[in-house]
Design goal:
The chain is 72% helix and 0% strand. InterPro entries: DUF327 (IPR005585), TM1646-like_dom_sf (IPR024042).
């Protein structure tokens, strides 16, 4: 009995496996949606800070001041956790120094605002000016 190689399998080049691009599309879509949701959340926090700042300027109470400070703290934590312009500790770029100086400046403005609120004789214009400066610094962080 003779054995031959007549039963060889044939492979066609048209059935080669194509790289999967659906996974890449899914990940990019997921990432863009996540970024968009984070941006909406940051904008909502800024809107709430603006409303609380206006309320603080009208009422000048310590309760409203504490709530305003807490909202700014939450905003800063959210932007840091989202990675808005925050340099990592292992980076020695100039951006990290800028971020640190912005946070220090926000802290100084909050201290000035607290002193303005404590001195009840201060004008509402001064308080509104400080609140506006703080909001401007917060916008610098996430834009």
């Amino acid at each position: 009995m003779k054995i031959t190689n007549e039963l060889q399998t044939k492979t066609d080049s048209k059935f080669t496996r194509q790289p999967v691009t659906d996974a890449n599309t899914f990940h990019s879509t997921l990432h863009s949606q996540t970024v968009q949701l984070k941006q909406q959340e940051i904008e909502k926090l800024m809107k709430n800070i603006t409303m609380q700042g206006d309320k603080l300027a009208r009422s000048r109470t310590f309760r409203d001041l504490a709530k305003f400070k807490r909202m700014i703290k939450d905003f800063l934590q959210e932007t840091v956790s989202s990675g808005y312009k925050i340099e990592k500790d292992h980076s020695f770029g100039f951006g990290g120094n800028r971020q640190l100086s912005l946070v220090k400046e926000i802290d100084e403005k909050l201290l000035s605002l607290t002193e303005e609120i404590m001195g009840q004789e201060q004008k509402t214009v001064n308080i509104l000016g400080l609140i506006g400066e703080i909001k401007g610094l917060l916008v610098n962080i996430y834009t």
